[in-house]
From TrEMBL, chains A, B, C, D:
Molecular-function annotations in GO: NAD binding; NADP binding; oxidoreductase activity
PROSITE patterns found in the cross-reference section: 3_HYDROXYISOBUT_DH
Active site: K170
SUPFAM superfamilies linked: 6-phosphogluconate dehydrogenase C-terminal domain-like, NAD(P)-binding Rossmann-fold domains
Organism: Sandaracinobacter neustonicus
Gene3D superfamilies: N-(1-d-carboxylethyl)-l-norvaline Dehydrogenase, domain 2, NAD(P)-binding Rossmann-like Domain
The protein's name in its UniProt record: NAD(P)-dependent oxidoreductase
GO terms (BP aspect): organic acid catabolic process
Taxonomy, superkingdom: Bacteria
Lineage: Bacteria, Pseudomonadati, Pseudomonadota, Alphaproteobacteria, Sphingomonadales
Keyword NAD: yes
Occurrences of domain 3-hydroxyisobutyrate dehydrogenase-like NAD-binding (ranges): 164-283
UniProt KW keywords: NAD, Oxidoreductase
UniProt entry tagged with the keyword NAD: yes
Amino acid sequence: MAHIAFVGLGVMGWPMARHLTAAGHEVRVFNRTAEKAARFAAAYGATPCTTVAQAAEGVDALITCVGNDDDVRQVTEGADGGFTTLPDGALFIDHSTASAALAKALAARHPRLNCIDAPVSGGQAGAEAGQLAIMCGGDADAIEAARPILDCYGRRVVRIGPSGHGQLAKMSNQIAIAGLVQALAESLHFAKKAGLDTAALLDAIGQGAAQSWQMDNRARTMVEGRFDFGFAVDLMRKDLGLVLEEARSNGASLPVAALVDQFYADVQKMGGNRDDTSSLIRRLS
Amino acid sequence: MAHIAFVGLGVMGWPMARHLTAAGHEVRVFNRTAEKAARFAAAYGATPCTTVAQAAEGVDALITCVGNDDDVRQVTEGADGGFTTLPDGALFIDHSTASAALAKALAARHPRLNCIDAPVSGGQAGAEAGQLAIMCGGDADAIEAARPILDCYGRRVVRIGPSGHGQLAKMSNQIAIAGLVQALAESLHFAKKAGLDTAALLDAIGQGAAQSWQMDNRARTMVEGRFDFGFAVDLMRKDLGLVLEEARSNGASLPVAALVDQFYADVQKMGGNRDDTSSLIRRLS
Amino acid sequence: MAHIAFVGLGVMGWPMARHLTAAGHEVRVFNRTAEKAARFAAAYGATPCTTVAQAAEGVDALITCVGNDDDVRQVTEGADGGFTTLPDGALFIDHSTASAALAKALAARHPRLNCIDAPVSGGQAGAEAGQLAIMCGGDADAIEAARPILDCYGRRVVRIGPSGHGQLAKMSNQIAIAGLVQALAESLHFAKKAGLDTAALLDAIGQGAAQSWQMDNRARTMVEGRFDFGFAVDLMRKDLGLVLEEARSNGASLPVAALVDQFYADVQKMGGNRDDTSSLIRRLS
Amino acid sequence: MAHIAFVGLGVMGWPMARHLTAAGHEVRVFNRTAEKAARFAAAYGATPCTTVAQAAEGVDALITCVGNDDDVRQVTEGADGGFTTLPDGALFIDHSTASAALAKALAARHPRLNCIDAPVSGGQAGAEAGQLAIMCGGDADAIEAARPILDCYGRRVVRIGPSGHGQLAKMSNQIAIAGLVQALAESLHFAKKAGLDTAALLDAIGQGAAQSWQMDNRARTMVEGRFDFGFAVDLMRKDLGLVLEEARSNGASLPVAALVDQFYADVQKMGGNRDDTSSLIRRLS
């Protein structure tokens, strides 16, 4: 049983924190909208805090799951941030999808802490089911120490490498998804234009070389034009922004990822900001 | 037990025909290089023929597995082609990947035959294992009649719709693959540039939203730079040529398929004509 | 003064033929819609013909300006085509935009004629003003012999090389235009989204490294959303089809041309088939 | 005659400052590498300064021509930056290509100054000849007051709009250039693959709808494979980075600009960092 401060009770953070209380950990929670922290605390027996500093005081681990680099900096190094009180040797686990540069910088600036960048994959459904994939960057010892916590909501907790490598792995994941979804969208768009029975099509090709998680889980809804679920276009664009920024510095060339990022701009213009990433097909029809 | 003429003993046709002899069908074979037909006949107890017309005389089914539209026309409607002798009501099953227009035209011009366009997916390995996916276009009755034959090498035999729809399904399949492979190539290229441990990366993301048959079966060899197997770049370009020609007439817009087709031109310039389609990653490094 | 058969009185051919009559040449005209030929003949003192064969009998030069490869074949080698009567040593000048393969094949099959593939650039306005650029493929002697005719409507008549090279030059021209127009469209789209005064913008950048004929002549109308003039999207797609087909055989990789070709498919879906090529900007807004 | 502080004596700044001394202005210069400022001062009768603050003290105008946002912030708002001493009502003219957000922020935070964002176009040659195009953002009165200074090296000084609009205009310029150069590269690459005489080609198409400044000034050197001059790939990537960042916030979709940005990454991988932007053709051959 550990003492844990959990910061950021969004669609991902809420169920993750809930798994921690369910596992018997003693959890303090902080959320930008304080009412939400109060509501969580009341429901699951956690302690609501009014600052991150207050939450982090004396805990074994500070866990954050917030929006972007600025948010991460704010809740850690900011005034009233968690790092002002977090004890020496404590774990800092950041589940936010943010830049690798920030992860590296935080670890370098705070050697007294055990910093782990640990972005997740699996979406809201994975968070609720406690079935997330967690890509970890940081010292191997730190990650081993964090594993009992991460296992509360992670189905697959993998150390990728040193600090920053968790974020870089998440970026690799998003690159693979973006082009794959566009390819699937073009395939289904073509099929529709060609007058094909898409159910028969998917029956025929769904276990071959074109198979993908996206085909298994999104092809049907793409054909039906339903996108009110899943991973939002706005978030994908944020992630692709991190990807392309990182590629600018590591020298990778990502023509299709860059192109699909622009196609997501088209989807945003159509009002699809909160639609699932599979809504790429909308701009083709 | 059926009388079957099989035309085209290439890397796909040879094992397919072999499954037919193994199942006890009486098979006549024709190949442009006659020596190959003789060799097949000697090995598997088939009858070699010197013309397609001779092979097709009196059979229940004429099966073709050749290179392109011109080849299909030649072995069917050409002088000494199979349609000169194929009996009324016989099956004509074309496993070639060719245009939907040709499939429709053949069926329309030869109503006395039961024409099925039946391109396959699964590659050489699938052909040898008798585990192909077969996408069929044609009358439902004809496809039902052909099923005992197709089941000899097909794991999944699906009627997509009327004549031409088999070819259109195959095109949809290739569209989905082309962009997916490029996305995977960019993901792994980025990971390499970022210095990631790709084995750990694949372990972490390999069952999530980025998962695909290509990731399961090609990511490792892409990282290793091995491409001397699988589905050749030259064949993929041929197929994408059919795709883009069809899209020009049905009004589909396929930006990523068109772009990746050009990237395959880069691979060809690098000498990768016979490399597996996953060699797209070569032009990134 | 020459005896000339002119075939194809479309928006380009009509004013070209008119320049020939105005220059004193004796002109016979043929058009698929015979009424148009009759109208032209009455207006400009030409002789209308009911077949191309009739028009080409005994002339010094057969000039064609039709739609595509099939049309060119029909009016030359078809039954009642011009080549059935065109005298030995006569000029055959094809102003159609068609494949280089056809140009080469016609020249090779008819060595008794002086064949010139001579696609034009300059649009309807250039045709009417007699100010076309004419890209010629064929023997140098033949092109010199044709020059007095071509000068009637050409401001710039250039021999590019042997048969087919006129068509290949036209393809190079279209490749340069397609990407350029898309770049200009993106620039103006960005300017609009940024709230810029586009007149001031064009004043500032219009003579620098971003300058182009398209910027000089199309930027204003693109901003205004006017596209009911110029070179039609449908024709550009036809030309890009020839380009991409040729690139498939000569090994060029044309990523942006291929991509913009697909963007033109989007414009066609928006109903812009006859709009000017600058209408690419429509799909961005 | 004005008192001017000029900061940043790079390949652009040096000749610009020289035009100011030549016009009789009293010029103080600062450069990160102090030796360069000393050398300039000795050659052209300017006063070298060891800090920007010293240079800006009491002047009529502070002019900066530095690398990026961080550099601009440093030389203005940094410790020893120019804004610590620049008098109320003085002109601040920034010729750097930087973000519009920074230009807006500086103007908003320093209302006591007359801030003008004034990126230039025309390259080193334009700077040396005093023939730059200057895109200005800021108050109309401020820009009018700056005009006598800007006219020393500007052929075309245009007010685009309020603060930030100079930078946005420069971005529009770069968007137009990036796709245009790629289109030209593809055109010439195709021509070469097709075996065309490119001199004849350019003679034929050089004044038509494919014409551009890039075709006039770069086509020949692209064919020859010479790129050791002009506007560097690294700088273009920096600018496209600003473009894509801005587009992310204003909602513009820039598919070809984003794609060509990635193609420039390929050129960088080939070692072409300092080559002219026309070196895009290298990655095609």
